[in-house]
Amino acid sequence: MKRSGSFALAFVLALAAASASAQDARFDVQSFRPLGAPQDLVVVGQSRPLSHLSISGGAFLNFALDPLVLVAAGTHSKAVSVVGNRLQLDVMAAVGLFDWIELGLDMPLVLAQGSDNLEAIGTEGFIQSFAPGDLRLTAKVAVPGLRRAAEGSGLGASLTFGLGLPTGIQDAFTSDGDLTYTPGLLLDYRFESGILLSLNTGVWLRPDRQFAGVQWGNAATFGLGAEVPVLRSSGITALGTLTGSMPLDKLPDSALQIPAEFLLGLRWYSSTGLTFTVGGGGGCGCSLTVPTLRVFTSIVWVPGKTREWEALERFKKPPEPPVDPDGDSVIGEGDRCPSIAGLVENGGCPDSDADNDAVVDRLDRCPAEAGLVDNGGCPDPDTDKDAVVDRLDRCPDVPQGPRGRDGCPLAHIKGNKILILDQVHFATGQDIILPESFPILEEVGQILIDHREIQRVLVEAHTDARASDTYNFDLSRRRAASVMNYLLDTGVAVERLCSAGFGRSRPVGDNNTEEGMALNRRVEFTIQPPAQGALPPCPPDPSAEQEPSSMKKGRRLPAEQKAAAPLP
């Protein structure tokens, strides 16, 4: 901060009288250019235009101490107060269009200002106390995609343009005496908490003027501003701004002028539509036109119950903490069932079960039909209608029958095999069939009786790898013959059956394990291909050279064989 607010400019009073006839060109020394929308940060704009057809009006009153004072060369002593003190009123109005555009005007009025006798700078007498300033017309246009709602958060941007009309009095330092232009860009960001940060940049296009050895003309402008809610629900916020400009040209050997001011203030957004702001600050001592001290106050009004008033009222309401009345961790609009506790993955609603099958609809593959949990909520099909559902049925295409289990009958046809539910069991090391296997063999016999299209079945017997090949071939041959004889006893014609023993030559399991050996000790029923004409002889038995030791003698003739009708 500098003493008396003036730039330490070399000014030699001894030369002033000699140069009185060469009066310097005067210019507008006012650097405080307020903005009239209720949410603008005094002299730093925010990006949002006023709401459509909303209007605002207001007044800024500011007092500047020593805005233009010259000091003697080589000292800090005040030599001449060109504009010693100034009290200025800015009367402002703005209107919003389409929520995209804002048009405004500002009429500055210098209510009072003082000075020393200005004979030293070429004019006898004092500066005019009351004088109008240059009327300013302003426009703000939101950038598409970056138009933020008044109460909204996020990034915003707009383009601005200002036009200054020479309505002021140049001799009173309230006008540049010509048209001036101020195109610019506003960027800002409002946080969820209500904090606003704003950056303004642009250029001030004005006529070239020389005063006290300094050139005043076109300049680049900048502005930084922040608004921080203090009591947001009451509409009270704190403001801070830093504004200034830098001339684009200067006279050779002259000091660079950077008029910059820092201001702080408090604002109250009242519920009556009036916004009050008060604050102050001063200059940095970097320019001829920066005051030592500035204080200001403002009042901006928007009509109550308008869109802009409603927007300001919404801004005053701080973000409410998330509400979860049903305690299901799904809050706000995301909860489709806000009054009933539910699941996050179900949009806050409880899982329904329309078919009452204990599988909720969200996971039920058959939500309209009662089913089983293990089957994804769908009923279990039973293709063969044997009361054993397909999911548990080892033979889903064949009825289980009265003596079957796990959905399979004791015996059924599949491909070129008659499959049996369990192994045919024999006495250990013998060809005697155990009674527990009689039902299975009776079922096989019934299949053959019912399916006369089967011309011949080869009964195969196999053993595990224990004992020698000779022993196993013999044992398997005798066991196959025993099974064939049992089938003959059930009524199957002899010409429809053949038997063969394969010993341990065709294992289906690992003979090094008990489980594998159990699989290898088996009887299979292989359906032979149909013959054209008379049936050929049975295929040779791999162990035909050995005579079965337990072939049954005196076997009776099966009933099927006694039938007169030949096989097809």
Fold and architecture overview:
The chain has about 575 residues and is mostly beta strands. It has 2 domains: about 5-315, Beta Barrel (Porin); about 410-560, OmpA-like domain (60s Ribosomal Protein L30, Chain: A), CATH 3.30.1330.60. Helices cover about 10% and strands about 30% of the residues. The strands form 3 sheets. It has a 12-stranded antiparallel β-barrel with strand order 1-2-3-5-6-8-9-12-13-14-15-16. Strand 1 (about 55-70) and strand 2 (about 80-95) form a beta hairpin. Helix 3 (about 440-450) crosses helix 4. It starts with 12 loop residues before the first helix and ends in a 6-residue tail after the last helix. Residues about 1-25 and about 545-568 have low confidence and may be disordered.
